[in-house]
Amino acid sequence: xxxxxxxxxxxxxxxxxxxxxxxxxRPVAFLAAQAGxxxxxxxxxxxxxxxxxxxxxxxxxxxxxxxxxVLLRARAAAEGVQLRRLVLGDGVDRRxxxxxxxxxxxxxxxxxxxxxxxxxAVWGDVNVxxxxxxxxxxxxxxxxxLLTFPLSMAAVDLPTYAYARARVRGGALxxxxxxxxxxxxxxxxxxxxxxxxxxxxxxxWVPYGLVMVGLLAWRPRWLPWLVVAHGLVHAIAAVLVxxxxx
Length: 246
Fold this sequence. Notes:
Elements: H1 3-43, H2 49-53, H3 57-78, H4 83-88, H5 97-123, H6 127-133, H7 139-167, H8 171-184, H9 195-204, H10 206-218, H11 223-245
């Protein structure tokens, strides 16, 4: 193997390692941020601080997302790519309008219907799990979550998974694995030591993750539009927290 070929092979291996590292960093960051909030609540005298920290999950996610943006930006810079270019890509061709018009309802269905159906299957009542996710926060915290959580999720979540899918080999199997990872990361957002809740959170977003990463694998240039859709999906959760808190 010539030196240029060896250098290119090394760059590809490094990119693949970083792809998996960035994916693994997402749930780790969520857990670390929740642990930090639980620590602050414990210092404030809150009983059962870990359980109480679950209500603060949108802010924990925002903190984790900031860390994710820093990591993704550093990795993009190492490859000579601007983070803005990585997120926004080259734009969408007008000829994609018909495809997007068909794809976005599928995204909406997996983001709304699938979690609802899975909640009904696990709990027998779709509102049980939602009561945890929409626990009231202090008004200031709910406002911060409303303003920062959807934007930060849009800025880093899907771009990270798009980055990984573009650099990991394996075709359809890699797409399935990365799409499943996008859904399964929610098992720790928030994390509660209750198996039924973990199961519900882990599996409710897997269909959505498979659809989103599958669309990115099929049409990478759709990333900007899917990022917007991703942000809107998470805005719904932030609005529910805001309504529960005011």
